[in-house]
TrEMBL record, chain A:
Protein name from the UniProt record: V-type proton ATPase subunit e2
Topological relation to the membrane, as annotated: Multi-pass membrane protein
Localisation per UniProt entry: Endomembrane system
Tree of life domain: Eukaryota
GO CC terms: endomembrane system; proton-transporting V-type ATPase, V0 domain
Automatic annotation (TrEMBL), chain B:
Cell location: Membrane
Name of the protein: V-type proton ATPase subunit a
Family: Belongs to the V-ATPase 116 kDa subunit family.
Spans through the membrane: 424-448, 469-486, 549-567, 579-602, 638-656, 757-778
Task performed by this protein: Essential component of the vacuolar proton pump (V-ATPase), a multimeric enzyme that catalyzes the translocation of protons across the membranes. Required for assembly and activity of the V-ATPase.
BP GO annotations: vacuolar acidification
Annotated Pfam families: V_ATPase_I
Alphabetized UniProt keyword annotations: Coiled coil, Hydrogen ion transport, Ion transport, Membrane, Transmembrane, Transmembrane helix, Transport
Length: 70, 820
């Protein structure tokens, strides 16, 4: 559940970023497509990294064992 | 001309493929040739082909002009040398190009050179006489001392002998001796003497040789000069001694003279009488003072001359270099003698056609020629150069990709995705948001001051860092993100987003150090849980996480690479490449390593305890057997068998059909042409003389087959090795976090534990230096290098050919940085 919510947040941030880029750096269709590609790639990379780390901790097989405090 | 281009799989995107280029031919009349080339150089969008490549540099049309420019450049270099020796720096020239005539500049340069050489020669002569006079002065002083002391001792001796005579020894002999002695001073043999200076290191040898050459019939006295003297011949300081040589006879004199010359000992005249010595002394001192003023006046004059040169130096320099470049280019155009015009061929982007035509028109008008220039596009089968229009942000990334190989004309440019994935993979290996912030601050300084810094001349390393400022900016932004995910701020975790998910099993926390904590709350929402740092099971957990993450990211990037090859196949309309290369490659990679990625995700989602090593190994070794504890999802055995089978048939699928299909295509293309080949050979010869285009196509089946075999083996074996290669993402990130942790715990915390302000300051300094030196500089370079390798090898070998050549237009903007 939290996973889906956060993934949705990532998607929304990505869309907002691409709209923002389109508004601020409007330089013709082919250049806009390049900007859009870059923003989407960055969003996907960031989401991928977050998702991997999140899913890896959902059902852990190893638990933290604290070290001896002196 | 781009005959093979066409619709890709998506609408056109900037930077994805090279700009379409065309071969253009320009015919200019002779009178407007110079101006035309100058305007085209200002435009900077034409790469001229050398049409006179068979001619030697001396046979070319404008060889004389280039020699003129070379002469002028030599004079300018001479001026620069003189200016730097005198400490005058040329004035910065940033203004617009004032129209100065090259002939005027040539004349002016000649005049100035003559004047400067004259001043230099005069200066040298004056300096030489000054040094000689200095030496003479020293000789006068030292030899004068010697003669004075000798005179004193001679008079002392004389009074002694006189006193002895009074004693009266032998009556018979004494009168004889007396007479002899009294006669001696008046009837002496004429002794000559020479004075001069000899270098100190040669003085002993000098004395010895003089002694031997004159058979001991000389008397020499040397006296050391304390300070070093400037030698008139060499102009350098040397240690010298003053010597006085007494001899008798002409033969001895000539020998001594020759020996003096051989040893480089300068001789100076010296008179015995005291009055004359004093006179010479005053004369020499007077002349020295005169010379000094003359020399300083000369130097002032020279300085003024050099300053006037310095004012105009940069302007002239630029003009001469520009002219030289124009003449070099003019030499590349071929002379059409019958039509009294020059023909030039070159590559230029299609979008620049109108601008080029405008420049040609302007040049024709400005040079008052009756005939305008002709501009036409040629058709050719040659491969055009690759041209990407980059701005200050994308230039650095494009250069990184170009360093490995320039893209073939119109193939997909890896830079498009590299702009994001390269900083991202760097950040995966660098993840620490504290270090990321430091890197960001450093690069923001470069970016905010870029206008000022781009005009300065920076050192080599700063030049590289400045050129890559946007790359480093992206790297630092992504590092801050991955640092937040790894939850490391100088290796210290913070529970920024929620409290940690783990708690003690019971209230007393008795088993925290043996069995460990349990997960009570929801998963930590963003990143690695902060509880892990410092625990005993931190490394097993993080290693497992990072290794699996590396595999997942690696498989994703490799799939992206194969999809880029699909885009290429679509663009070049090669169905063979789609069905017999792209499809089997996708199937092979995803049936094996895509399946592994899916297993990783399934294991994480279900929390299964199955060991993925065993799953994969038994999938290959004993696929038909029961899975037992390796079961992760229902019907796994069927799925594995299917994937194994698909992977197995994809190998011959990518190896065998393509060469046969290519052979059939080649035969179909050349079927109707076997009879017309005789005529074609003539045409193809003509085409070749125009620029070496490949008119005839050869098809060696064995070569194609071997090529495909190598390609297949590379892909199949590379699938395993490249996937494993991505594990360096894990390795470097582990190294970074461990180094960071060591510096924090063993330096900073230990310094804090002593409760001493001095140790604290020392510890802080060591921590700062270690962080900057090892982590911010060395680790940055290391992660940069490895991210680069991952892109160049593992990503690009899925689709990139990179055997094109870069578009190198004729332009004046680069002249400012040349031959420094």
């Amino acid at each position: 559940m939290a996973f889906l919510v956060t993934s949705l947040i990532f998607a929304v941030v990505g869309i907002i970023a691409s709209v923002f880029t389109r508004i601020c750096f409007n330089q013709g269709p082919s250049t806009n497509l390049l900007h859009f590609t870059l923003v989407i790639t960055a969003t996907v990379c960031c989401w991928l990294m977050w998702a991997i780390v999140y899913i890896a901790q959902m059902k852990p097989l190893i638990v933290p064992i604290l070290s001896e405090v002196e | 001309m781009a005959e093979i281009g066409g619709g890709g799989c998506c609408p056109p995107m900037d930077l994805m493929r090279s700009e379409p280029m065309q071969l253009v031919q320009v015919i200019v009349p002779m009178e407007s040739a110079h101006l035309t080339v100058s305007y085209l150089g200002d435009l900077g969008l034409v790469q001229f082909k050398d049409l006179n490549s068979e001619k030697s540099p001396f046979q070319r049309t404008y060889a004389a002009q280039i020699k003129r420019c070379g002469e002028m450049a030599r004079k300018l270099r001479f001026f620069k040398d003189q200016m730097s020796k005198a400490g005058v720096s040329p004035k910065e020239f940033l203004g617009k190009d004032v129209d100065i005539d090259l002939d005027d500049v040539e004349v002016k340069l000649g005049e100035l050179e003559a004047e400067l050489s004259e001043i230099n020669a005069n200066n040298d002569k004056l300096q030489r006489s000054y040094n000689e006079l200095m030496e003479y002065k020293l000789v006068l002083e030292k030899a004068g001392e010697f003669f004075a002391s000798a005179h004193r001792s001679a008079t002392a001796q004389q009074s002694e002998t006189e006193s002895q005579q009074v004693v009266g020894e032998d009556a018979l002999e004494a009168p004889l001796l007396q007479e002899e002695k009294s006669v001696d001073p008046t009837k002496q043999v004429k002794l000559g003497f020479l004075t001069g200076l000899v270098p100190r290191e040669k003085s002993m040898v000098f004395e010895r040789i003089l002694f031997r050459a004159t058979r001991g019939n000389i008397f020499i006295r040397q006296s050391v000069i304390e300070e070093s003297v400037v030698d008139p011949n060499s102009g350098e300081k040397a240690e010298k001694n003053v010597f006085v040589v007494f001899y008798s006879g002409e033969r001895a004199k000539s020998k001594i003279l020759k020996i003096c010359e051989a040893f480089g000992a300068n001789r100076y005249p010296f008179s015995e009488e005291l009055s004359k010595q004093a006179q010479m002394m005053t004369e020499v001192t007077g002349r020295l003072a005169e010379l000094k003023t003359t020399i300083s006046a000369g130097l002032d004059h020279r300085k003024i001359l050099l300053e006037t040169i310095g004012d105009k130096f940069e302007q002239w320099n630029l003009k001469v270099r520009k002219e030289k470049a124009i003449y070099h280019t003019l030499n590349m155009l071929s002379l059409d003698v019958t039509k009294k015009c020059l023909v030039g061929e070159g590559w230029s982007p299609v979008f620049a056609a109108t601008e080029i035509q405008k420049a040609l028109q302007r040049a024709a008008v400005d040079s008052n020629s009756q005939v305008g220039s002709i501009f036409q596009v040629l058709r050719t089968k040659e491969m055009p150069p690759t041209f990407f229009r980059t701005n200050k942000f994308t230039t650095a990334f494009q250069e990184i990709v170009d360093a490995y190989g320039v893209a073939k004309y119109q193939e997909a440019n890896p830079t498009v995705f590299t702009i994001v994935t390269f900083p991202f993979l760097f950040a995966v290996m660098f993840g620490d948001w504290g270090h990321g912030i430091c890197l960001l601050l450093a690069t923001m300084y470069l970016v905010l001051n870029e206008r000022k810094l781009s005009n300065q001349k920076l050192g080599d390393i700063m030049e590289m860092a400045f050129g890559g400022r946007y790359v480093i900016l992206m790297m630092s932004l992504f590092s801050i993100y991955t640092g937040l995910i790894y939850n490391e701020f100088f290796s210290v975790p913070f529970p920024l987003f929620a409290p940690s998910a783990y708690e003690c099993r019971d209230a007393s926390c008795s088993e925290a150090t043996t069995i460990g904590l349990i997960k009570t709350r929801d998963t930590y929402p963003f990143g690695v849980d902060p509880v892990w740092h410092g625990t005993r099971s931190e490394l097993p957990f993080l290693n497992s996480l990072k290794m699996k993450m590396s595999i997942l990211l690696g498989v994703a990037q490799m799939n992206l690479g194969i999809i880029m090859s699909f885009c290429n196949a679509k663009f070049f309309k090669s169905a063979v490449n789609i069905w017999f290369q792209f499809v089997p490659q996708m199937i092979f990679l995803n049936c094996l390593f895509g399946y592994l990625s899916a297993l990783i995700i399934i294991k994480w989602c279900t929390g299964s305890q199955a060991d993925l090593y065993h799953v994969m190994i038994y999938m290959f070794l004993s696929p038909m057997e029961d899975l037992g504890e390796n079961q992760l999802f229902p019907h796994q055995k069927t799925v594995q068998l299917t994937f194994l089978f698909l992977a197995l048939i994809s190998v011959p699928w990518m190896l065998l059909p393509k060469p046969f299909i290519l052979k059939k295509q080649h035969e179909a293309r050349h079927q109707g042409q076997s009879y017309a080949q005789l005529e074609e050979t003539d045409e193809s010869l003509q085409v070749e003389t125009n620029g070496g285009a490949h008119g005839h196509e050869e098809f060696e089946f064995s070569e194609i087959f071997v090529h495909q075999l190598i390609h297949t083996i590379e892909f199949v074996l590379g699938a395993v090795s490249n996937t494993a290669s991505y594990l360096r993402l894990w390795a470097l990130s582990l190294a970074h976090s461990e180094l960071s942790s060591v510096f924090y715990e063993k330096v900073l915390l230990m310094a804090l534990s002593f409760n001493n302000i001095l140790i604290l300051i020392v510890g802080l300094l060591v921590f700062i230096f270690a962080t900057v030196g090892v982590l911010l500089v060395m680790e940055t370079l290391s992660a940069f290098l490895h991210a680069l390798r991952l892109h160049w090898v593992e990503y690009q070998n899925k689709f990139y050919e990179g055997d094109g050549y870069k578009f190198d237009p004729f332009t004046f903007t680069l002249l400012g940085n040349e031959d420094e």
